[in-house]
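Incident review: delayed structure delivery

Summary: a single-chain prediction request sat in the queue longer than the usual turnaround. Root cause was a stuck worker, restarted by the on-call engineer. No data loss occurred. The affected request and its eventual output are reproduced below so the record is complete for anyone auditing the incident later.

Affected input:
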Amino acid sequence: MSTARGARERARMEVTAAIKEEARRQLGEEGAARLSLRAVARELGMVSSALYRYFPSRDELLTALIIDAYDSLGEAAEAAHAAAAGADHVRRWTAVCEAVRAWALAHPHEYALIYGSPVPGYSAPEATVPAASRVGLLLIGIVRDAFRNPGLADLPLPAELRPEAERMVADFAPDLPPEAAVALVAAWSQLFGLVGFELFGQFHRVVEDREAFFRHAAARLAREVGLAGA
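Output delivered after worker restart:
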């Protein structure tokens, strides 16, 4: 790579990072629905036509922010899981859950972008799926390890739900029993429901010691997917 080309690429990366940082600031002040490329360009001292060379539309900028948020969340969860290596399945599960909560509390506007109200007129493309899957894949991996060890409790499954459960395992966990797939999806949705309730104020005057409450709830979710401590 030539020196000139390397300098151009570094400059482009710096400008891209500045655009996304300003967009995140505006997310906090205005919300995703009011994100504007023109406003971002104005705050950065750029003309709109120059910014469009980096992000041709608001939706492309939103997609980049969404992928960054999912990746940041995924990295935090993966780091917590790695730190709990060697612990029992319940502890590994709760470590991931606690990392999700900690990240959300530290990045409320980015959490709202990926798990809050949909942005009017925006539909997330397939490009967001790998980043969005990182936490779910960690949780699936913990359950898979328990199933192989063995260490996964038997779970009930209504007969009318079995076809849907079999579709689930075929789609994202082909090496797990159908009962585990249903329990995983329920626990995954409850995890983000717990975090969202705390972050968006629904626990006000209901739960005071939220850290202890969350830790207890996360451990219950672990047992609901069939995990058991060592």
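Verification: Residues 203 and 209 are 10 Å apart (CA to CA).
Action items: add queue-age alerting; document worker restart procedure.
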